[in-house]
Structures are given as C-alpha cells and as structure tokens.
Prior knowledge:
Bound molecules: zinc ion
Mean pLDDT: 86
Strand order of the largest sheet: 2-1-3-5-4
Structural class: alpha/beta
Helix content: 25-40%
Low-confidence stretches: 1-17, 20-33, 230-235
Oligomer: single chain
Number of strands: 5
Number of helices: 7
Distance between the termini: 41 Å
Radius of gyration: 17 Å
Amino acid sequence: MKTLRIRLLLLLLIVIQSCSKNDSIDDDSGIDNNPNTVIANQQPTGTSANDLLSDNTFTSMIIEVVYVEGFKPTQNAIDNFVSFLENRTFKPNGIAVETRAITSPGNAPYTNQEIIEIEDANRTKYNSENQIAVWSFFADGSSAENTNSNVVLGTAYRNTSFVIYEETIHDLSNSTFEPDRTVLETTVITHEFGHILGLTNLGTSMVVNHEDTEHAKHCNVESCLMYWASENGSGLDNLLGVNSAPQLDAQCIADLQANGGK
Ligand SMILES: [Zn+2]
Ligand SMILES: [Zn+2]
C-alpha cells in the first residue's frame, strides 16, 4: 500500500510539474493582432483564453486530435473533453473534433522543441474568421524532461496547443492499483486545457486570489482540477477506483465566467 501511495504521489506530481514548467513559456514574438495568420496560433499559453471562452470573435471551435498509430486516446476521454468545453465556453456554432493518425516521428523521448516541430509539420487547422482552432498531439513516447521523481503526462505549451504523453499514460493506467485510463486521460487533457483557458492567473484574471503561493499558476483548492497536487483531495491518488476526473472548483469557474466563459 505504501508503494502504491508513493507511486500515485509521483503520478500526481506529474501533471502538475509538467505544467508548472511550461506555464511560463518564453515569448519573443509578441501578440499578433491579425487572427487569420498562423502566428495567431503560436502565442504563449493563456493568451487566447478570452477568444476560447467567449463568442466575441470566434463562434465555433475546431480541435485537431492527432495521435501516433497505437496511441489514440479513448473516445470517452475525447467526449469528456468536448463536454468540459461545452460547459465552460460559448461556441454557439459548435465544437468539432477531427481525429487522425500519423506515423511515429521516431525521436522519443520528446523535447519541447521536438513537440513544437511535430505540430508545425502536421497541424492543418488555424484560426479563421469565426472559428478558433486547437491542436492536440498524443505522443508515442515520453517527455525528455522526465526524471526519476517527475514524470510528465502532458504540457500546454502554446495558446491553442497541448501535448499528451499517451505512451506514459498507457504505462500508468489500466493495471492493478492503477487508475482507469479514461479517467487519467480526461484529467490530464482537461488540466492542460485549463491552463490554455488561462487558469490559474495565467491570462485569466482571478476574481478572488486563489493562486497557490508555492506552485504558481495553479489553484490552491485541493479538490480542484487545477490543484498542483492533492494527497487527500481529488488529486491523482484519488483517481484510483473512481470513474470521473476532478472538476474545476467554484473559484476557477468564476474566473472563467469573468473572462467571457460559462
Ligand atoms: Zn498544471
Ligand atoms: Zn480551482
């Protein structure tokens, strides 16, 4: 049981450190005011929160789900992701998902720069006049940033882009004493997208200060999806035996609502 706890604790460090490291991605390109260019989709994480949350500029959303053959996320996780978006964003003309496989880029473990290059080589959807585009990649390998004590499950690295290390998720789910794969996938996908929606204090202003003082850009509510780690809340250790991912708490939802979301 102790081994289990240790393992799960490591597991929960994952999501979290992965994000904290990439929450503050350097940007030397500035914000492009023309939404109809590729560069509009190459901005820092959190800067398109209002565009994603509201229908002020974009009334629909297209999500590219691209995976390496053999590493397709479960359909339930994709459905949960779309439900999460429908519950939090205003897109009256709909949220569409396009799923397709690519062959392995072949250079795992992947550095952040390699993940960016894979996106740039394979992404086909960019913002158009009324539709905002999102890129997600499900990798056939691990992150090059993994260490003995920190395993990265996913990273939100641009304003409309995130990567999920699906091979690592396979290694850590669906066996004895491991979480259900769909629950783990849903947790990581929605946590990373929470950052893209500007949580916490990452492009979406806080109505009331609830940023974790020790873990920047994360919520200080232990049961919240955006908590950096929660040993007795709904953190990853609590994913064992449960059939749904942690939810956003009231403060994170209030922040999204104040920035144009539901
Ligand atoms: Zn995070
Ligand atoms: Zn929260």
